[in-house]
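User: Predict the complex.
Assistant: Input components as received:
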Amino acid sequence: MSQVSKPLIEVQNLTRRFPSPDGEEPVTVFENASFDIKRGEFVCIIGHSGCGKSTILNVLAGLDEASDGVVLMEGREISGPSLDRGVVFQNYSLLPWMSALKNVMFGVRARFPTWTKRQVRDHSFKHLSMVGLGDGAEKRKPSQLSGGMRQRVSIARAFAIQPKLLLLDEPFGALDALTRGTIQDELIRVWGDTDQTIFMITHDVDEAILLSDRILLMSNGPYARVAESVVIDIPRPRNRADIIHHKKYYPIRNYLVDFLTTRSKNIAFIADEGGDSRNIKPQTVRPGLVENLKNISKPEPVTTNLTHNELNKKLAKGAQ
Amino acid sequence: MSINLKAPLLSLLLLLSMMVIWEMATPKVKSAENMTEYELLMGGASEEARVPPPSAIVKKAIEELSNPLYDNGPNDKGIGIQIAYSLYRVLTGYSLAALIALPLGFLIGMSPLAYKTLDPFIQVLKPISPLAWMPLALFIIQDSEASAIFVIFICSIWPMLINTAFGVAGVRKDWVNVAKTHELGTLRTALQVILPAAAPTILTGMRISIGIAWLVIVAAEMLVGGTGIGYYVWNEWNNLDLTSVIFSILVIGFVGMLLDTFFAHVQSAIQYQE
C-alpha cells in the first residue's frame, strides 16, 4: 500500500442476505461493499431506502452481523458493540427516566469507570455545554426537551465518550428544517474542535455536502453496491450560508442528485456469480474539479448493462 | 367552584343522605310494653338481630377506634391487633411472592425459551382459586398460620410474575442497544436499563397483587381462624353482632384503600414519559 497511514476502518466485501420468507433464494440486500474510512475523516453515505445503509452502519456498530465480509478497525476485525464505536440513533435513544445530564453521565461512566463522580459530571456537563444545553436544560428529562434538544443530548453523549469512530444514523431525519440547520452547524463546530472520525447516513444531499469530506454513493438494492466515492473538496471551515456560493457547490450537488435520481437505479447490479466485484473499492470521483464540470451539465445516457466500473471509466474518459 | 372542590362535597352529601335514608328505614326497637308475649319471652332477640342503623355503627366505630389495641384473651382483641395480624400475613406472603416472581419474571421476559417452557405451568396454576390450595397447604405445612401465608403467596405471585415478564420483554430495543453500545454487562444492563424501563409495568403487577392479597386474606382467615380481620368478621357473625360486622367491613375497605394508595404513589414516582 502506498498510503502512509493505514485507514482507521477497512470494510471488505461486506454482504448481507436475508432469508426469503417463502424459503426460496435469499434476498441479497447489498453485496461486496468495500471502502475505507481514514482517521479524522467525515464520511457520509447516501442511497435510496432499502439499499442497506442502516445495515452497514449497524454492522460497523456491532449491533448486526454481515452475511459475508469483514470490517477491520485498526487492522483488527470487529465483533460486537464497543465503546470505541459510538452511535447516535435517529430516534435519539435517550433513557427517558434520566435527566439530560444523567444520560450523558451514563455514557461517560461506562467509558471511564475509574473516574470520580465529580470528573464524570464535569466532563458530561462540558459536552452538554458544547451543544448549548448547559443553561439549566441539563436537568430536564428527555420528554421535557424538544426533538432538536434531544438530538443534541444524544450527540453530546456520543462525543463525550470519545469513540474512535462515531456512527450517526440519519441523526437529523426527524427534525424540522430550521432545527436541522442549527444542529448541523453545531455538529461541524464540535467536530472541528476534535479529531473525531464520523460515518453518517443521510438522505439530504445538501447536508452531506456541508458536512463531509467524502460521500459514498450506494446503488439501489437488491444487490446494492457502494458505487462511488465522491470527494467534497470545498475548503473548511464551512457554514450553511456561504457554502452554497462556492463555485464547486452546484457541480457537486448536481452530480449527486443526478446519481440519486437516475444513475442509482440504472446501475442495477445482478448477482455476482464470478466474484468479479470482490475487493473493488468504489471509484473516486471529483465532480468539483473544473475539468469534470462539462460531464455534469450534460449527463450521458446510461443503460442497465453498464457496471459501475465501466460507467466510471466512461466518465473518466470524458473528463480527459 | 372547581371540580376538585365540588366532587368531595358531593361525595359527602351522598354519604350523608344515604345514611339518613338507612337510619330512617331501620325499624325502631319496640319498647317492652308493646311486645307480644312471645317476643317478651325471647328477650327481644329477633328485634335486636336487625341490620343496625348507621348511628349504632358510628358509635361502635368510635368505641373500637378509641381503644384499638386491647387484648382480653383469644376471642376479644382490639381491631388494631386484628388488622396487624392480617397485615403481617399479607406482607409476609406478598414479600415472598415478590422475591420469587420478580427474578423469575425477569428471566421469562428476557429469554423466549424460559417463557415457552414455563408458560403452560403458569396458564394452569394462575386460574386456581387461592383458597383451593388451603387443604393441601394445611396437610403439607401442618400449620394454619403458615398455610394462610402460603395462600397469600400463591395468589399474589401471578400478577407480579406476568407483569414483570411482560414489562421486561417489552423494553424498547433502542434502549437495550444503548446498553450494548456502551458495553454494559448483562447484570448492569438488567439493573440500569431494563429494570427502570420495565418498572412502571412491574409496579402495576405489584399493585394488582397487593389488592388480590388483601381480598384473599379475609377469606383465608375465616377458614384458619384465631386472629386477623377475617376471623374477626366471622367471629362477630357468630356472636350475631352485625354492628361489629359492618364496622369491620368498612375497616377492611379503608386498609385496602391505604395499601393501594401507597402503591399508586410509588408508581407515580417511577413513572416516566417517553
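Residues 186-224 of chain B form the longest helix (39 residues).
Let me know if you want any component modeled separately.
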